[in-house]
Amino acid sequence: MAKRVVGNSRKSKKAWSGRFSHPLAKSAESFTSSVHYDVRLYKQDIVQSMAYAQTLLKARILNVAECKKIINALQLILKGIAEGKIKLSREYEDVHMNIEHLLIEKIGDVGKKLHSGRSRNDQVSTDLRMYLKNEATEVSGLIVKLQEALLDIAEENIKVIMPGYTHLQRAQPVLLSHHLMAFYEMLERDKERFAKASESADVLPLGSGALAGTNIKLDRDSLAYELGFSKISKNSMDAVSDRDFAIDFVSAAAVLMMHLSRFAEEIIIWSTREFGFLTLSDKFSTGSSIMPQKKNPDIAELIRGKTGRVYGHLMAILTVMKGLPLAYNRDMQEDKEAVFDTVDTIKAVLDIFEQMIKSTKIESEQMEKSAQKGFLTATDLAYYLVGRGVPFREAHKVVGELVAYCEESNMELEYLSLKQLKQFSDAFTYDATRYLSTKNSVANKDLPGGTAPNRVKDAIKRARKNLTTHKA
């Protein structure tokens, strides 16, 4: 049995070194260190520590002079890190132990009192919750900016008619504005998901200790108020081992990216010569290293590609958490890189997406020309027959035969005469041909949620009001 060397632990700078006979191997120190990425939590950690010092004062663990000394020192550390004058060291494992070391270095033994009743387990969870609450708000703000850009384009092109698609086949005429408002609605639900993620994070775990709570009589409700939390955790074991709130955030981000990827896919398709529905700005396109004529939608493609990155982070956190026994396990350190990269990715994507679409030119003539081909008003003609008392299935069959006739004759529905229509059904009368224009087709979808111009205008108006309320 290896003999313990008394006093050897004093050579280690680890906060937990007291029960160990030998220092951590350098390879293990490097492997376990997280300071190179969790440094971004330094503001949350210091703000939390200042509030916690006040709580320890109320609990009579600190006196007034000690509390003031700790807070003043923490403010100096905060400023030093923000200005780049203080660098954190991998030797102290993470941002939390680095800040504690800096505090003790500045004010001596008084700094050692700050961790009384607090574990890194509840400390880390508190920092991450504070961080994600703030990021959820920032992400929602970026979503709003993208929604505003969509509304601007929708208003500017309120009269533009384009083909609506199912199975990527031309289906029925719709307003371009109606199409854009579909993405607005997706983004609106994304904001709701981030609001829920923020609500999920809005629970204070501090005071839970390592897993069992603490002997110190901490005023957790007052601490929650000081740190901007609306409630405190109800179970100390759950509090330190819960990462549901992080999963909720990354899940919301994954759905957001799915929506943006769908939008990016349409931009990519629409910018091709085969569609020609829009022209991307040179500022948001790239060329080919070999083909001089190429103009590639690389920004939209990267947005589409980064969706898989965020999906991967969601699966990573779910996998880390799936088999962990209560309470805290070091595996949970793996949550942060996934969370941080998710935040960076979605914020960058939202910002560049807004810039890209604001500079995109809508090719309205090409859209409307495309809407004239492909028998897009066939359903309107079937509805006309229904209005004349023909059962829908029979009307569907009649119009299907008309489409086949037009294909054989190499003509569009709108060029059919009343005489030709009557060859297929006596229910057609003099006004039937009015149903064959794309403009009338769009106008006739006059019900809530429809593509009629007045309905789309109302939707844009409501959306403007909603965004104004959100920003207020």
Automatic annotation (TrEMBL):
One of its GO terms (molecular function) is argininosuccinate lyase activity. Residues 375-443 form the Argininosuccinate lyase C-terminal domain. Its EC number is 4.3.2.1. Keywords: Amino-acid biosynthesis, Arginine biosynthesis, Cytoplasm, Lyase. The keyword ATP-binding does not apply. NCBIfam families: argH (TIGR00838). PANTHER family: ARGININOSUCCINATE LYASE. This is Argininosuccinate lyase. The gene is argH.
